[in-house]
Amino acid sequence: MGLGKMLLEKLQPADIRRLNESDKCALCEEIRSVIIDTVTKGGGHLASNLGAVESTVALFSVFDFPKDKIVFDVGHQCYPYKLLSGRYEKFNTLRKENGISGFPKRSESAFDCYDTGHAGTAISAALGIAKARDLKGENHQVIAYVGDGSFNNGLVYEALTSMQILKTKILIILNDNGMSISPTVGGMHDILNDLRSETEKKAEGIKLLESFGLSYLGVKDGNNCKEMTQSLEQAKKLLETNSVLLHIHTKKGKGYEFSEDEPTLTHGVPSMGAKKEREYSEVLGETLCQLAKTDKSIAVVCAAMLDSLGLKQFFTDYPERAFDVGICEENASVLSAAMGTAGLKPYYAIYSTFLQRSFDEIIHDICQQDAPVTFCIDRAGISGPDGETHQGVFDLSYLSLIPNLTICAPKDTEEFKEFLNFSANYPHPLAIRYPRNGLIKFNSENKKIELGKWEYLQNENSNLTVIAEGERCLTMAMEIAETLKNKGLFIDVINARFIKPLDEEMLSLIKSDYIVTIEDNVFLGGLGAMIDGWLTSNNKRHIVKNYAYEDKFIPHGSVKSLQNRFGVNKDEIESYITEVLK
Amino acid sequence: MGLGKMLLEKLQPADIRRLNESDKCALCEEIRSVIIDTVTKGGGHLASNLGAVESTVALFSVFDFPKDKIVFDVGHQCYPYKLLSGRYEKFNTLRKENGISGFPKRSESAFDCYDTGHAGTAISAALGIAKARDLKGENHQVIAYVGDGSFNNGLVYEALTSMQILKTKILIILNDNGMSISPTVGGMHDILNDLRSETEKKAEGIKLLESFGLSYLGVKDGNNCKEMTQSLEQAKKLLETNSVLLHIHTKKGKGYEFSEDEPTLTHGVPSMGAKKEREYSEVLGETLCQLAKTDKSIAVVCAAMLDSLGLKQFFTDYPERAFDVGICEENASVLSAAMGTAGLKPYYAIYSTFLQRSFDEIIHDICQQDAPVTFCIDRAGISGPDGETHQGVFDLSYLSLIPNLTICAPKDTEEFKEFLNFSANYPHPLAIRYPRNGLIKFNSENKKIELGKWEYLQNENSNLTVIAEGERCLTMAMEIAETLKNKGLFIDVINARFIKPLDEEMLSLIKSDYIVTIEDNVFLGGLGAMIDGWLTSNNKRHIVKNYAYEDKFIPHGSVKSLQNRFGVNKDEIESYITEVLK
User: Fold this and answer.
1) Considering only CB atoms, which chain A residues are within 8 Å of B530?
2) pLDDT in the model for residue A454
3) Which residues of chain B are within 8 Å of residue A208 when distances are taken between CB atoms?
């Protein structure tokens, strides 16, 4: 029909069901090209969204959104849905500050009924929404759209287990491409394989799902719009009597090798000292490989994401000591704890916000037993364009409250290496937090790491001391120091490389009247709050100003701009210090 | 043979395998009688331990502890194991301060290889220990002993899913009595039922387990020592080639209706004002039933434990709005979030330390979406004889760091009721924390709850203000106030009924030079730390003393004594205040 861009521009959600097959195909191609265009320019999830195009068009053909509700698990496959639900015009603002989010957001559209970002929540959420529907006497469908990678996650299992308790009806679309971020592995993977086969084993898989109270339909071709529409019609019919699992098989997107994060970000890091930048993950991988050469007890555990955590080489070199358990953050924690209690030296690498999933296990299994587990916490601090669910701004707070846990933040990738070397001989739980991108070397003597000891990056016997953690905040502090120096003003700058324990000795020796703390974390429970608590308890009378993030969820945007907006504004800090020292 | 008590007194673990069947039976009876005797006197878990007697004797007959390792899931069935591994003589100190723990403790015995307390960790832990064994070239067996109640838990599923990744061999003993704390429900329950049947369905259940890489053996009579010994021998043989799940069926203990906690505790609460005591859980159940009469949107969600949470009546009166999803704390959180976003008013009742399991979901699903979920957090603060894993001393810290979440603690059960009434019209996430036992009414005007507003319980324009949260700490403060009054000294006492937000107005108006904070929580991230942070940020120059728990895991003991030992010592507080005011 050659409608070209006309379709997405003019199409109302309700019009989609009236398109003929060839228009639907054209629409799919248009969606695909808009996504490729937008993501290759501005970043975002590509493969997962490309795989979801036809099934999403089919969903609009069969269901009536927003009256019907859909929950996208993780949410990294919602771009086609956004394009079809009135967000085409804003789509060029995807993941940009004040633009539309890369994940479903209730605040953004009535078509988004539930916010996601982390894996495994969709089935529970759909059950809750469906139950609310039943109790309120409403009449609409509820759909959970879940990738196979999430099917390893315990929460999915808990949700399936509760289906018969909740006695409500939902449609689960299992989008199976045989890949989560890392290849999908384990028992459920085998069951999905069985379901994909046309053997006797398929029947067994189906019976398993039935024992959870689900009717099974599949495997259907998720990249065939017509087949998908028919399958969804069929599923809708089945929904009259039972919950349904529609198993669809999709092809991974066109295989773009593409950075997950906004490429501009990787160039926005302020540079001090040596200018060359490096990802912390590279240093992690290299250093662990080196350490593992001589230390046979070192093991690496992760919950998917091994590539972006920098662990590919370790998995190649030491496959017998490298464990990727899929999106199972709790299991990864307990495995680490147990290996630690049994004489190994486990390193558990994970993104800051995903570690929240094993909070209880960090307390109950790792720290209570004082197991020598090292957490390598990537994407700590504001991570930027992924928004609320991915901002690693809570870890200092939720970790520092746990007994037996030591927490540190390197000032650069060199110091990160030092911390990893330190960790190898540290027989207790240790958490090292770091952002994605880093400097190779900060200007400092880079003194050897000593437990709980901070270092001065600048000591001028000033009347104001800045205490900051991690590369970003220390860079900020040193840039301010530099600017002020040019005005004849001098500050002291401390690298609070250990957040817990605080360096109480150094703290108690601070002579300056003013203290400024800066951190890449919320204020509550973080470095500044810990320092305030220590100063107060010890009756110290400094005048303290804490720069940390406000008590709010931080949306997507660039790191710098979000820091500025949410409480760690360099100019403001500089003005305050100038005011004080003038 | 009439060996009587001789057996347990003199038996070495290695001797057990040499006993004949009738001596083993005698031993089982002896163990059973010691457990009944000890638990009925001093409290503890009865039914689960009585069910585990024969299988534990059989374990010692077949395996070689402590060379072989066993992880008890939850750990509430380890008493027979403790009795047989050298702790008979100390068994009368069970759950008593400085006595032996009611849960496995590595610090207590070489026979305990892994600490537990929360559900679902054992299979992960056993896998980690077994993998460490393999890598270290050791040769011993690793066993996970798991109740069927835990089999609903997502962590168990994550562990099963990772069996083929870890490529190691463990024995899982599934102790199936068809009951967790609340009756076991859901999909896995059906599968276990199938396995117990001798139908075609049994074969399907077996195939399911095999797809996770397990050889299945069962169902065996777990209360028959001879059958258990034979089954374990058989399992040991199978372990040469594969991991094994040995499914045993046991009878619930002799059905003692017995309080889970040390009965002395329920009499140790200091009384102020009206003397009569009441459990908070009763008030929860009653009030929710009342509220639900007129508010059709109210729903109740819990993750097992509905009885001890006080919800039995609600489940009877409103079965269509009451959901017990079994030991699935994450699922319960997401269900609550979803119901909240979809127009219901969910109440999620749970013990403080179990809520740690849904930390990520509290952030990601409930608070980020600002869903109107009310957490009813029972057993907050030190809970006493259950020890480290059950001390609810972290919730103020891990909750206060989360944006959008309001946190409060009632001063008595009356105020708890007020808070529940308040919650009914509060359209945001709200956490109410409370201990098990409570007073009916404190001496105060019991002003109507207003968001973020504290109240004075005593206002004497003193130079010292005590700010305390919750009944226990306020009771302590008021008792101190009383004592001091008799000495002619006066203090002000504030009920910090909201921990978040702090009552900044009241804080800023405090004229006294001295402030004392008291809380039933660790210091880091808690009420005192929040107040310190606020005072520091606002340049307030009070002299502050914070009484809260030290940064340590708190073992089992009596509430009072543990408070004294770990940082909230009434005498010390009184001395300090006296010193200041004199």
Assistant:
1) 524, 529
2) 98
3) 191, 204, 208
